[in-house]
Design goal:
Length: 361
């Protein structure tokens, strides 16, 4: 075994061990007080949150709070998420601007009237609280800003390297970025869109490729509790909507002819195909949205499920098996981060190419 291979293996083991420590610390109190609920733990980790939970020390959580921004009937209300500390009931009431707020399952509610606690119905829904408009900077929002800052740093540094280079040869970070840019251009944009039309779509294709990839990578870092940005349906929906808008406005006469009045087929078949093609216009972005969301979320769920086996069986003996399989899935997830960015980008380019394709005689 070479020194490089040993270092990579050691890093991978530490990576998964850190994940185990993070997951275990957050659920230590749960396993002591009641039966461990794997489903609840997994759902808690894959959804968004109002703070970064780091670790528990003496059963006290250490977290990085984020700003809570609410639009209520009395206007804008702001405070830090650390105000929602857990008391014995688990639902601490925060009083701001004469209003009372409580956080339940990462959703913030405003208590009605003079109520001092939450009242639930039989289905455990609050009956004396309403939801204000939540504009808070959540964990996913913060990590998106971080990914934007990282991308700006990478590409501005790359541009600076090229400006200072007399022979225009890539050096430093530019040597890593240029092959990826060339790959997106030569293997995605040109084949899918065409030699004469791909250039105006390159900024968008490069943006979504690197943006999705960077966010996917951040989702695997245990210290930030796996901010699952690409596993958020709102995030993937927004990207899919942008692809849909660009495709729709890029459509030429030939594209719309194939949508509404398919050439070369009998009239009854034209009428039959038209609603199918119209539905297909909306199915394409929906499939983009669900594919990215499902694949990224599935990876997180599998790793968390494997970690849960330790607490389900309540045995340390199962830990080596869980860690080994989690290590294997983590390595696959590192590869999947790039694959999913590639798939979203190439399908977007394919849709642009279909919309701009000229009629063939």
């Amino acid at each position: 075994m070479t020194l490089s291979t040993f270092k990579n293996l050691l890093f991978s083991i530490l990576f998964v061990s850190a994940s185990v420590a993070g997951y275990a610390s957050e659920d230590k109190e749960t396993t002591d007080d009641k039966e461990f609920n794997a489903k609840e733990m997994i759902l808690h980790h894959v959804k968004d949150a109002h703070e970064f939970h780091i670790i528990d020390v003496n059963e006290k959580p250490i977290s990085i709070p984020l700003p809570i921004i609410l639009w209520t009937d009395n206007g804008l209300t702001t405070f830090m998420s650390s105000a929602f500390h857990h008391d014995d009931s688990g639902h601490h009431v925060v009083e701001k601007n004469g209003m009372k707020f409580v956080k339940l399952h990462e959703k913030i509610y405003q208590l009605n009237g003079d109520a001092n606690e939450v009242v639930f119905d039989e289905e455990h829904h609050p009956t004396n609280a309403s939801m204000p408009i939540d504009l808070s900077i959540t964990r996913n929002v913060f990590m998106m800003w971080v990914s934007v800052a990282v991308l700006l740093l990478i590409f501005l540094t790359t541009a600076k390297r090229y400006r200072k280079s007399d022979d225009k040869l890539p050096t430093g970070i530019a040597g890593f970025v240029e092959p990826l840019v060339v790959f997106v251009r030569d293997e995605i944009a040109r084949p899918m869109i065409g030699e004469h039309k791909y250039k105006k779509y390159m900024p968008y294709l490069l943006t979504i490729f690197f943006f999705i990839w960077i966010n996917n990578i951040f989702g695997l870092i245990p210290i930030i509790n796996g901010a699952n940005v690409s596993g958020n349906i709102a995030f993937t929906c927004t990207l899919a909507v942008f692809t849909f808008i660009i495709t729709t406005f890029s459509g030429n006469k030939n594209y719309w002819k194939h949508i509404f009045w398919m050439p070369g087929v009998p009239v009854p078949m034209k009428i039959f195909l038209m609603p199918i093609e119209i539905i297909g216009m909306f199915v394409k972005p929906i499939s983009l949205m669900i594919r990215l969301f499902a694949n990224i979320t599935a990876g997180h769920v599998i790793i968390l499920a494997l970690m849960s086996l330790i607490f389900v069986f309540k045995s340390v003996a199962i830990a080596p098996v869980s860690v080994a399989f989690s290590l294997f899935i983590t390595v696959i997830e590192i590869i999947v981060t790039a694959i999913q960015a590639y798939i979203f980008t190439i399908l977007s380019a394919l849709y642009f190419g279909m919309a701009t394709e000229e009629e063939h005689h």
